[in-house]
Amino acid sequence: MLTLQEISSLLKVHPETIKSLVQRGILPATDIGTGQRHKYRFVKSACLEAMSKPINTVAVNAGDMTETKPCQSNKGMVSGTVISLRRMGSELDSLLGRKTSERRRNSTTS
User: Fold this and answer.
1) Quick check: 44 and 34 in contact, CB under 8 A?
2) With contact defined as beta carbons under 8 Å apart, do 1 and 41 qualify?
């Protein structure tokens, strides 16, 4: 039987990660704590077997992902240049600024 610290050093992961794996049911453990305080004990062979399951050994790379839907924008992709934050802010303000007539009208009167 191994403690939380021993199994985290064996698997080379943080103890909080071990707790998360136990709570999600991925890593088998026995809770010997009382009340709100959990103390886990682990069987080395069971933990190594659980971590070697195919679901836990799949490599994930976000760079391999592709979008299934194309971009919904009607404008084509344009390469921009790096501009200062002040200039970018003023350009965004001018684009997002509300265009109104010279005299604003009250919406409650006709």
Assistant:
1) no
2) yes
User: Amino acid identity, residue 27?
Assistant: L
Compute the C-alpha angle 75/81/85, nearest 5°.
Answer: 105
pLDDT of residue 101: 58
40 forms beta bridges with 31
Q: Which two tokens stand for residue 101?
A: 């007539």
Tokens standing for 65? 């992902």
Q: Which residues contact 32 (CB under 8 A, 6 or more apart)?
A: 39, 40, 41
Q: pTM (2 decimals)?
A: 0.47
Asked if 64 and 72 touch (Cβ cutoff 8 Å), the reply is no
